[in-house]
Amino acid sequence: MPSPAYHAPDTIEQAVALLAGDAAARPLSGGTDLIVQMRSGRTAPSALVDLKRIAGMKGIRALSGGGFAIGAATPCTALKDDKALAAAWPGVVEAANLIGSVQVRNRATMAGNLCNASPAADSVPALVAAGAICLVAGRNGTREVPVEDIPAGPGKTSLQPGEFVAEIRLPAQKGSDAYLRSIPRTEMDIAVVGAGVSLVVDASGTCTAARVSIGAVAPTVLLVKDAGAALVGSKLDEAALDRMAEAVRAACKPIADKRGTVEYRTAMAGVLAKRVVKIALERAGVSA
Amino acid sequence: MSKLLVSTSVNGDPQQFLCDPDTTLLDALREEMGLTGSKEGCGSGDCGACTVVLDGEMVCSCLVLAPEAEGRQIATIEGVAEGSQLHPVQRKFLEHGALQCGFCTPGFIMASKALLDRNPNPSETEVRYWLAGNLCRCTGYDKIVRAVMDAAAELRQDRRTAA
Predict the structure, then answer these.
(1) Domain harbouring B139, CATH code
(2) How close B131 gets to chain A, by Cα (Å)?
(3) Chain B residues inside the 8 Å CB shell of A6
(4) Looking at B79, B107, B124, which one is the last position of a domain?
(5) What is the torsion angle, in degrees rounded to the nearest 10, for the CA atoms of residue B67, residue B68, residue B70 and residue B75?
(6) Could you give the ipTM of this predicted complex?
(7) Which of B57, B60, B68 sits opposite A50 (nearest CB)?
(8) Which of A116, A150, A170 is the last residue of a domain?
(9) What is the reported pTM?
(10) Which residues are bridge partners to B54 per DSSP?
(11) CATH code: domain of residue A80
(12) B61-98 tens-digit pLDDT
């Protein structure tokens, strides 16, 4: 197999030109999925376009209005080191820091986790629940795409030739968030089921907004709108949580494999969704 | 495809080498620079035997492409001891018998040192989570964890004495 070309452009425009001019070129950030896939022969890109030398691609900016812009090549451990981000979006930061080992998280990025398009990607349900938006760079400049619209199936994205995710934007935190996954080990494993939530509770304890997402139970991470709707307007009592869990289970279309059966994954999705709501409530200062 | 010239710094010394674009940093260290302390266990980022510190952060060198190291600072196991003076983490691994075949040891030393460099007083749980990316098939980990905890205690003592 011929060795691919390696490019380390300085600008987004150069990176877009390199990717647009070669359909078999791939963007490289942390490489923790891409290099493994290259070495196992699962993918053989003609060129690698390293995004890490582009200004702004590594790092976190606080946005006016309270949100955050996370450069696509920002490693997961850097999210944890940003105290303001970790305080505002603990679910997102924890989810990204469940991936692999410290060595892996020092390289792996959320944008890579998203564009690798594994149904079991840990950071993706948390980003979907948070309502995160991708800034996608391409030949016609940049466009904004909700995170949930990037994965198109296992290993496939909706990105067009030449496009890559340049930045992930989190909105201002108005409530709280949480993410949990189920794994048979305690570390270094892939989610059998994952669930994320982001919710807002008013002073009377009534839920005014909720987004619920699930991972590893369908070809892509899912935003379960019915599950969020089941919480909105409630006091997040057991009856509301039961309706939410029912909507989550109804959305599941999992595969059965050595890590979990269809029945187990479906049942656990409901269980984890309830648990993340309770964690998010605690974080919001409301006891469930 | 022509070879790329990469200029980098390894254990404080400038290094230049030629490589194919998809050569891993691990292979460049071992084959081009003759630094064979870092090992390849799995080649997929699971075992940590190839752990090096790249610009201050520990990474699996099997999952870094050598051209990415252009202009970067790399620290490897070869730079941990000062001459014949072992680093306390190395000495404690010997004292506690925290190795048998030794293949994983360079990675464990690099990861343990990286932990103690940023957290001089880790709990046992913190040590175990930090080292989750380093696999050892001989020891069962217990002696490794004891060695790291003991090295941490000694380093804290040294710091107090120096202060």
Answers:
(1) 1.10.150.120
(2) 8
(3) 4, 21-22, 65, 67
(4) B79
(5) -110
(6) 0.97
(7) B68
(8) A170
(9) 0.96
(10) B57, B74
(11) 3.30.465.10
(12) 999 999 999 999 999 999 999 999 999 999 999 999 99
- Cα–Cα distance between A30 and A101 in angstroms, integer? 13
Q: Which residues of B touch A35 (CB under 8 A)?
A: 24, 62-65
Is the CB of residue A119 less than 8 Å from the CB of residue A219?
Answer: yes
**B130 to chain A: which residues are within 8 Å by CB?**
102
Angle at B53 between CA B51 and CA B55, to 5 degrees: 150
Q: Residue B58: which CATH number?
A: 3.10.20.30
pLDDT tens-digit series, residues A109-153 = 999 999 999 999 999 999 999 999 999 999 999 999 999 999 999
Give the minimum alpha-carbon distance from A51 to chain B in angstroms, rounded to a whole number.
Answer: 10
Number of domains in chain B: 2
Q: For residue B53, give its domain range.
A: 4-79
Mean pLDDT rounded to a whole number for chain A:
96
Is B67–A52 a contact, with Cβ atoms under 8 angstroms apart? no
At which of A141, A170, A199 does a domain end?
A170
Band the pLDDT of A1: cuts 50, 70, 90.
low
Nearest C-alpha neighbor of A224 from the set A190, A249, A193: A249
Q: How confident is the model at residue A285 (pLDDT cuts 50, 70, 90)?
A: confident
